[in-house]
Design brief:
WH_DNA-bd_sf; 2 domains; WH-like_DNA-bd_sf; 127 residues; 6 helices; Arc Repressor Mutant, subunit A; two-stranded antiparallel ribbon; mainly alpha; transcription regulation; GntR family transcriptional regulator
């Protein structure tokens, strides 16, 4: 996932362990809203290869994020961002999932579905 890597690299000179740097990076992105609820994170092996660290380093960061309720791992389905106590984010993710399901069932292409959502948001702000 390029958002994790965009303008960011592990600081090999830092006294902060690599797993903690990864954990903090993901936390920052979640807090800033750049990683929305439901966003799938890269696999442990993939991110480890991108960062040139051992897979156990990334696994530890993911494990600690999971213990904090920030991400959830569902076996082979991978690791994704959870609501982490963000009820509004969780409700929005549920609504987005429902909308995406309807769009797929109707065969609406993603760009058109996104345009429909954008128009609905604009209509809402004009009221």
């Amino acid at each position: 996932m390029d958002i994790l890597m965009r303008r960011w690299r592990l600081d090999t000179e830092s006294t902060v362990p690599p797993y903690e740097q990864i954990r903090l990076r993901i936390l920052d992105l979640v807090s800033a809203g750049e990683l929305a609820v439901g966003t799938k994170l890269p696999s442990v092996r993939s991110l480890a290869a991108d960062l040139v660290v051992a897979a156990n380093t990334v696994a530890r960061a993911y494990r600690e994020l999971e213990q904090a309720g920030i991400v959830a791992t569902a076996g082979r389905s991978g690791t994704s961002v959870t609501s982490g106590g963000d009820l509004i984010g969780a409700q929005m993710a549920d609504a987005a999932d429902a909308f995406a399901l309807v769009a797929r069932e109707l065969g609406v292409p993603s760009p058109k579905a996104l345009a429909i959502v954008a128009a609905a948001l604009e209509r809402g702000s004009a009221r």
